[in-house]
Each structure stands twice: as C-alpha cells, then as structure tokens.
Amino acid sequence: MSSNIQNAAAPIVIPGHRSPARAAGPRSKFGPASIGHTLGHVSPEIAKVGLSEICLSYRTHGGERLLALDHINLQVRPGEFLCVVGPSGCGKSTLLHLIAGLHPQTSGQILVDGRPVEGPGPDRILIFQELGLFPWLTVGENVEFGMKMKGVSKAEREEKTRYYLRLVHLWQFKKSYTHQLSGGMRQRVALARALATEPDVLLMDEPFAALDAQTRDLLHDELERIWAETGRTIIFVTHNVREAIRLGDRVVLLTFRPGRVKREFSIDLPRPRVLEDVHVAHAARAILDELREEINLSLEVEYSVGVKPHLAPGAEQ
Amino acid sequence: MKRAARLVIFYTCLFGLWALLAQLKIWPPYLFPTPWGVAQELYYGFSDHSYWIAIAVSMRRVLIGYAISVVAGMILGLGVASNKFLEETMGGLLVSLQSLPSICWWPLALLWFGLNQKAILFVVIMGSLLSVTLAMEDGRKQMPKIYGMAGRNLGARGFQLFWHVLLPASLPFIVSGLKQGWAFAWRSLITAEMLYVSLGLGQVLMMGRETSNMNAVIAVMILIIGLGYIVDGLIFKSMEKRLQHKWGLTAAT
C-alpha cells in the first residue's frame, strides 16, 4: 500500500508540489489543507447533502431480496466536488438516483439543506449516464426545458439559455437537434441543461465514460472551470479512479454489492490537475489498491469463476 | 423528376387500357363505363355542388370521430400501459375486440342512438379507437424510460410531464398507429354511410347504384380513394418525415 494513505481520513498530500495561486475555486473558502481531519465528520448543520444510514434493497426476478446499498453515511459540504468510485454493480448510480429523488430508499434519510428529500426537486439535477436529452427539441429548447417547467418567463429563459450555452461553447448550435451533435457536444448540452435550472447540487453519473480521451480531457477542464465559476456542489460518480482524482476534492470508495463506504480519500493536489500527472497517477495507485479487491470480487460474481482473475495495476483506468 | 415521369407514364397506360377496353364494347356501357363518362360525371357532380356537400359532410364526421378516438385512445392506451392490472385485464380484451369489423357495431348503434348522426359517429369511433389505444400502449412501452426520468428530474409533473415529455417521446412509436386509426375511421365512415341515407360520400355512392349510374359509382369511388390518399399520403407522410428529421432517424439527409 502506498505510504500516502494511513487511514480512512488521510489526505493524499504530495509536499512540495503545491501551487496555491492556481488552486482557486469554491473549495478555497474551506481552506485546502484543513479538510483532511474533518473528513467524514462534516457536521450535518453545514452539510449541503447529508446521507444517513441509507439502505436500498429490491426484489430480484427470482423473488429474493437483494441489498444494493448498505448503511451509507455521507456528508457533502456546500461547493464541494465529491467523486464516488466503485466497481460496476456497487450501486453508485443508484445512490445518485436516490439523491435526485427518482426512487425512494428502503431506509435511512437524505437531507438537502437540512430538509428531507421527497421526490425530484429543482435544487438537485442529475445528469444521466445516457444523458436523456430530448431528441424532439432543439439544443436551445433542451436547455430551456427545466426553466419552462418552473414557469420562468420567456425573456429570462432566453437570457439564461444564452448564458449557459455560451458557458459550454455551444451557442451557435442552439437551433440544432441533438442527433446532429458529436458525443462531447451532447455531453455539454446535458451539462448546460442541468446548470440552466440553477440547481445547488449537480449529480453526474459517469458522464464522460463513453467519450474519447481527448474530448474527456477537454470536458474535465470545462467542468472544473464551470464548477469554479458557479460554485455548485457536485457529486460525480465514475469507475475511473484517475478521473475522480483529476476532479474531486474528496473521493469516496464504495464496496461491491452491497455498496458500503469502504474508504474516503481527501485529494489535496493543486488545481488544475492533469490526468497524466505523476502525482495523480501516484494517488490513483493508492486508491486502486483498495479498489482492486472490490473489482476482483465483482468479476468473481459476474463471471462466476473460482479463481480470482489477476488485474494488472492500472487496468481500471 | 424521374419519379414524376414514371408516374405519368403509369397512369397514362392505365387510363389508356381502360379507354381501350371500354372502346371495344365487350361489356355494355352501363356495366363498364368510359373514362370520359366518369370525368363528365365528376364535372357535373362538382359543378352542381352535390360532391362538395358530400365531401364536407363526410370529412366533418370523420374528423370529429377521429379526434374523439385519438384523445380517448391516448388516455386509454396510457392507462393500460402504466397500470399492470389494466394491462392484464383490458389488454387482451382490446386486442380481441380489434378483430371485430367496426360495422358490426352498427346494429347496436342503431338500437342505442337511433338512425342518426350519433350512430354513424359511434361506428367511426369504434373503428379507430382500438388502433389508437393499442398504438399508444405500445408506444408508451417502447419509449425509452430515460425520457420520463429526465423529465421528472427537470421538474415536469403530471400533465406537464405527459404533454411535454411522454407524448412527444412516444410520437415516433405511435404515428403508424395514428395512421392506421385514420384508415379505419375513414373505412368505417363510408361503410356506415352506405347503410344510411345521410348526404355523405357513402350515400352518393349508393345513389349511383340505385339509379344504375355506373359513371357516378366509379366517380365516387375515385373521390373516396383520392381523399384517403390526400390525408394519408400528404398529412401523415409529412408528419412522419418531420419526426424522422427531428429524431435523426433518416440516414444522411
């Protein structure tokens, strides 16, 4: 195990590589170095999103009950960029659906600004893995949709649509239909559509998983810039550890079925980070060591083999 | 342009053949009319306004009946698609009812409503309601679930969700059912009109038979085909094309 990780609350700090001038962003209001020891113990009063003892179980087609999420406790600070990683089948997407209010949890409580979540709300917008852009609407109409549902006036809708489409550099495509755009552009439409409803909390479900590496790098930069400009709280689910370290203030690792919080890592690298950076790779190695056990477990179940398949380091990237 | 040329050649040949057969006088003219006889009949029919009136009366009936079918069918279809109990019970009944030709409702309609407009409307609705219902049910099920979730996530509720998300999302899947519903409505109407003296196209067609006017019979048949084609080929086709363009279902246009 990497020496940078002592325990669940240990921040990954690489001394001598800090450039505080570049580490701007909403997180600075909490002090970049001070968050390490309070990890996992954010007081519920200041938490933007608070999950306590969240369990979710469902009945399979065979009739047996399957536990998907097992007593998840998580406090997310206002303006924090939180990444959730885990092997496929750990319930990380489901967790976002619960926070978005699209499904009820079996037990436990989700608080946003201290109020329990009862269904979808304009304060929490989820960007689906499959995006769910509406193909019968133009790019502009897609971005306007949430505001229209809220009853925002036409003039204000147009103004905000212009603002958010410019933010993602897609203003000139406002009259296109989504099928006319590339994967990366569609991704940005989804981001603009979510931002345009001005939610406090942005929930992102493996948004960049299907993109090529160049497009993904660009979108990482843009997302980080938009996060810094808008000060939103972001909960970002991914299976890619390096991506999580590239973006997150904190990385939460979930176990394979049932999903439990295995460990939390505070990522104390200066921003903007580069995916190929040696410190990112170094930090990723530490988390990957933990993740690998869970991946092996998931492979064992999915392929139903007795022998644990060996995974070379970095295979998850 | 080439396609238009082929169509012109095809129809010229068709009418030429018709004219030739009529000219040979194998059958008497009161059984096998000439093209110019039919054309003349069409001209008379339109100039004394009787065809215009018949078309207006028939179109009005079919539009009212079809509109009711579409609204009721969508509600029914959505209900059946989103409720497991309804699906299990009503679903099978709807499919089996569709095998019943709509004119079989005519005797029942006569007893319920009497010999009047309502009876005709009832038959038209029964003809098209089921296709619309089944199409809507199918469309709702085929529609990717993500759209409903995305709509709720962005704050759409109840009727908003139906009108702005579920309906447009299922349109590509129900447009063929809407088209089929229209065809059934049109056929049911003409059939019902033929059984009831009522001013519509069906009645004008029967008048042709009663007065042994073969020219009128063919002329009205051409009218019925023509109107069906206009609605189906122009209105529904352009709707389908627009949908395909929006959804990007056409290959490289």
Structural features, described:
The complex is a heterodimer of chains A (317) and B (253). Chain A has helices spanning 92-100, 139-150, 154-167, 183-196, 213-230, 241-247, 278-303, and strands at residues 11-12, 49-59, 65-76, 81-85, 107-112, 115-116, 124-127, 201-205, 233-238, 250-254, 261-267. Chain A has 317 residues and is of the alpha/beta class. Chain A has a domain at 134-198. Mean pLDDT of chain A is 77; it is low at 1-11, 13-40 and 306-317. Chain B has one domain: MetI-like (MetI-like fold), CATH 1.10.3720. Chain B has helices at residues 2-24, 35-47, 50-82, 84-97, 106-113, 117-142, 145-153, 158-194, 201-210, 214-247. The longest helix of chain B has 37 residues, at 158-194. The two termini of chain B are 18 Å apart.
Report the C-alpha radius of gyration of chain B, rounded: 22 Å
CATH superfamily of chain B: MetI-like
Shape of chain A: globular
Termini separation of chain B comes to 18 Å
Number of folding domains of chain B? 1
Fraction of residues in H or I helices of chain A: 25-40%
CATH domain class name of chain B:
Mainly Alpha
The largest β sheet of chain A comes out as: 7 strands, mixed
Dominant shape of chain B: globular
Calculate the mean pLDDT score of chain A and round it: 77
Strand content of chain A: 15-25%
Helicity of chain B, in percent?
over 70%
What is the SS-derived class of chain A?
Answer: alpha/beta
| Helix/strand class of chain B | mainly alpha
Please mark out the parts of chain B with pLDDT under 50 across 5 or more consecutive residues, or reply none: none
Task: Provide the residue-averaged pLDDT of chain B.
Answer: 86
- Catalogue the unreliable spans of chain A: 1-11, 13-40, 306-317
Largest interface between protein chains, with number of residues from each side: A-B, 27 and 21 residues
Number of continuous helical runs of chain B:
10
Quantity of strands of chain B, as a count? 0
